[in-house]
Amino acid sequence: MKGYLKVLFITLIMLSMLMPLQAKAKDVVIKKPPESLDKFYPPLSKKPEFIIQMHKMSTNFGGVFVNMGEKDWENAVKRGEQLEEEYKKTSKMVPEWKDYFNLEAAASFAKAVKTRDPKQIGKASQELGKTCGSCHAENSIAVWTRYHWPSVKSIKIVDPVSEKELEYGKYMKGLSGAFKGVTVNFGENQYDRAGKALNAFQKKYIELRSTCSKCHTNDNVKQFFVGDNITAAMSNMKKELTSAKPNIGNFWKNVGIVGKQGCKMCHLTHRAYSIIQGVWEQKK
Question: Which pLDDT tens digit goes with each residue over 147-184?
Fold first, then answer.
């Protein structure tokens, strides 16, 4: 029972640090990170130095509670001191973000760990956690978008239909247009036109496999949005278009597979970041 209470206490302490991360919807504004942060990420830096600092602070903070649970107070104190040191270092990295840091809170936390009193440590961790949570709530999405999510701006694709090299955005618009050509013509019983549009759409869509490989080197990942389920659905659509009497229900079922399991899933993964990056580019 004592072991359970110990784990419960440590869990509550860790959760107390994360609580400030909960921001109200009306307060969420995704602002482009300050340019002073650029020097801590590639290509200006060989390593993502700022996120490395985040990991150091997180490891030391969590290490305090891990060691507390194991009654290893010697290492708990060391972790508290290391956290204060890394916290000070991080506070000087981005001048625009200096107000997020509370050096007194970091010092108080390190001092509280030395008391070996869980209540004092818990109280001090909450004050320190507020500073981390406030910065994360306002900046973490923007930082991940700018420095950790590849931009599609540099991607060029050779359109297999026109054989012209296109920017990623223009290519995707053409892909969307081809898909609409399939559904609109089928809805109007123009099966020949729908078939031609489907041929163009399929070629354009399958070409994305090579495009995905620009970032994804794992074959399983490359196949995720352009996998066998999608190609099978397209084959079923073609089958209906070439039959004497197309099965309307089956055709739309397979359209749904392509749209929901292919296009939509890719958009859910990539689209939001791309939109944010595009807005930042327009503001230059």
Answer: 988 888 888 999 999 999 999 989 999 999 999 999 99
Q: Is the pLDDT of residue 18 over 50?
A: no
pLDDT at 226: 81
Residue (of 273, 222, 12, 269) closest to 119 by Cα position: 12
Q: Give residue limits of the domains in the chain.
A: 2-148, 156-282
**3-state SS class at 166:** strand
C-alpha closest to that of 120 among 80, 63, 89? 80
- For residue 167, which phi and psi values (nearest 5 degrees)? -70, 155
What does the buried/exposed string (b/e) look like for 79-114 if buried means 16 or more CB atoms within 10 Å of the residue's CB?
bbbbbbebbeebbebbeebeebbbeebbbbbbbbbe
Determine the 3-state secondary structure of 22 from DSSP: coil
The pTM of the full predicted model, rounded to 2 decimals, is: 0.73
